[in-house]
Amino acid sequence: xxxxxxxxxGRPNVGKSTLMNRLIDxxxxxxxxxxxxxxxxxxxxxxxxRGQIVFLDTPGITRADSKLGEYMYNVAVDTxxxxxxxxxxxxxxxxxxxxxxxIIEILAKASVPxxxxxxxxxxxxxxxxxxxxDAYKTALDEAGIKPAGCDEFNTECGRNPVAVSAVTGDGTDxxxxxxxxxxxxxxxxxxxxxxxxxxxxxxxxxxxxxxxxKFLDKEVPHGIAVIVDSMKERPDGSLxxxxxxxxxxxxxxxxxxxxxxGATLKKIGSAARKEIEEMLGSRVNLKIWxxxxxDWKNNLLKLNExxxx
Length: 309
What we know:
Layout: E1 2-10, H1 16-24, E2 42-48, E3 51-57, H2 67-79, E4 85-90, H3 98-110, E5 114-118, H4 126-142, E6 162-163, H5 172-182, H6 200-215, E7 225-233, E8 240-248, H7 251-258, H8 263-280, E9 284-292, H9 300-305
Parallel strand pairs: 1-3, 1-4, 4-5, 5-6, 8-9
Antiparallel strand pairs: 2-3, 7-8
């Protein structure tokens, strides 16, 4: 039986969480077009008769501009210490900028086998894809990075790199076959029915934050955190009562989050409640408050309190 840990690494907005959700066929990690959507390592599990893959979704690699940013960067880098293979997710472009160079530097130091995954194949033709492969192959070879499953990064190998579309699912079956091929023989790390080690409270908080990303102005979501204060099922099992708090940095942001007559907060709550109910398989009574905690992103005590430990 094959088993192992597959880390998903990449710049913000390349589709890491979308791909992971697609591979396990369930929404665990929240997704958004906004940068810094994923803030923690999110662990999910896929098991079938071939074995078990534990996926490690990571925050996008970017310049840290706060203690929270430093935490996110360290989470992404530290994940490589436990990975059997790293899926470096990139877009079909020939431009390899400073962000990509930084990831190459990280991968070279980690000495972990790398599987180059070119996402968004539905947005590029075959010529563009081949040019992207050549550009990344050159950069990886120059850095002396060890490819997973092949002697070198090239299309003739047929195994590395691999092109996928996290949105349409194209290429994802081939990617899963390749991962099982690459991973070593090993034990089951989780029960065969397990999908994630994230708690329902953690996922609930993330669903609420995802809706904040969807409905709020550009600058606001980067300064919020969400904590679930209580989550209790009623004795008759008819309803789950959830109380949560959205933390923001400024009074002006609090007003934006609440909206005129509470309209924005109601939209956030209503959209989040639907996904929480689907996850729990139960009706939900969701109450959300908004509190201001100035500069919490640079306060280590607050970061710990809000789950960024």
